[in-house]
Fold:
Amino acid sequence: MNKTYYVYLLASKKNGILYIGVTNNLIKRIYEHKNDLTEGFTKKYTIHNLVYFEETKDVNAAITREKQMKKWYRQWKINLIEKSNPDWDDLYGTLF
Structure:
């Protein structure tokens, strides 16, 4: 069975606090963030909006991409979000 892996960006609001993560179950993981089911950064800073994600079949590629993006300048992350989601809409509802 081929799994799909996701690298995703959450934001507290437009131009707000950003969080980058990786998962193999995007719907479940974003649900956990939205409902503060896990302790940590996103719960502490109320970061609940899925503003960007990309997918791959290669777990190593996903982890490498996440690490790469975490090292980026903030403006690069903002540019990436705004290229595909200029209004910073919460994309969670589009996953169903």
About this structure: Strands lie at 5-11, 18-23, 49-56. The first strand starts at residue 5 and ends at 11. Helices lie at 26-34, 41-44, 59-70, 74-84.
